[in-house]
Amino acid sequence: MKTHVTHLWDVKLIPMPEDVPEWRVSDAETDALISALAAQHAAQLDVPAACAGDTVFCAAGQNLADRTVMIYPGRNMPGAEAAEEALVGAKVGETVKTELCGSPATLTVQRVVRLQPATIDDALITGEGIDGVATVDAYRRYIREKTEQENRSFSARSLSAAFRQQLIERSEYAVDEEEREAWLETSARELFDMYLQEGIDPHIPEDGTEFLTDEQAIEQFKEKLRPQYLARAMNRAFCLSHGITMGPKEAEIYSGSDLSPDMAEDTFYESKTWDLLYEIAMERLEGEE
Amino acid sequence: MIIQATAENFDALLNTEYAVVDCYGDFCGACVVLEPIYHAAAADLAGISFIEINLTQNWQIAERFGIDAMPTLLFFRNGKEVHRVEGSMDRAELNRHIAQMLYN
Lengths: 289, 104
Prior knowledge:
The complex is a heterodimer. Chain A is built from 8 helices and 7 strands; from the N terminus they run βαβββαββααβαααα. Chain A has helices spanning 27-40, 81-87, 122-127, 136-170, 177-197, 214-241, 248-255, 261-287; strands at residues 4-7, 43-46, 55-59, 68-71, 95-100, 103-116, 172-174. In chain A, α6 (214-241) crosses α8 (261-287). The longest helix of chain A has 35 residues, at 136-170. Chain A starts with a strand and ends with a helix. By secondary structure, chain B is α/β, with parallel strands linked by helices. Chain B has 4 helices and 5 strands; from the N terminus they run βαβαβαββα. Chain B is globular.
């Protein structure tokens, strides 16, 4: 690749964006996670009459193909709001005339179930079968750490995308225009063929109503691909700055998926860049503690 | 209560009047966002089987149902798929899809 980065922006200089999602879990959120576990293990108690929060099992007759229909008072399920209100106070065996999804419905209450959250104790925690977690205190630590790990991983993905965009924009390049145009032309034609092979019509315009000619469609692809050209050079420079190069073994693996040597190289460097940025993002998030 | 499915027990788990299946995968950010919302619905709405299946480990299910996005929620009535939706969503949106399975 003749086009190359003349100055690679230092990722350490990129400030943390303000909109990175919070990944730490507060005490209140941990309590909510424990309550969620209690709800998941709730016992189902049969009660004689319905109130908000219950599940009311009803026979709905032929209107709904004789299915059992559950109405959930208080949840505002779309289409069932009137039935939810009508069934509050209804007793098992009672028939209520109401409406479902805007149509008249006659519902006969078959069963009313109230969920009673389980008591969270060591026995319930042991029953969860989590390695090394047998007490409520251990579960508190476990669920907090697990959730923070998931949150941090999620935040790191969005952060690494922001870092990559900044690296592309802030780095400086020596651009070989001839090479850029040749790459855009080849890649756009490859994309055009790929669309056809996948059964997607590449002649459909992004805007406007008239179908594109082959050449117009290829021009449209070229414009879509243009921002990726500098990203290729940045990916390569970023990997090299971290001592990562594509050797014969990697070339074999990446070309094995029917990619041209150029595309295999691009895919390799892009994938490694994402991996590196993800690691950097995870470290930065941990450093924010 | 959430039931974890595999390709082997999948059909047996659908043998119920109403079932919803969260088809998720490894390294899927949107799946992580949906998970607590899905679990909260499962803990609240009795009478529906709430099932999860990891498509990364059970790719046969993705092939069989033509799933090409994660997460995908599949809605079944008496074992027959009646509705599906792709992507993460909030609880109100999830309720809307569940209502479609129950009342349409």
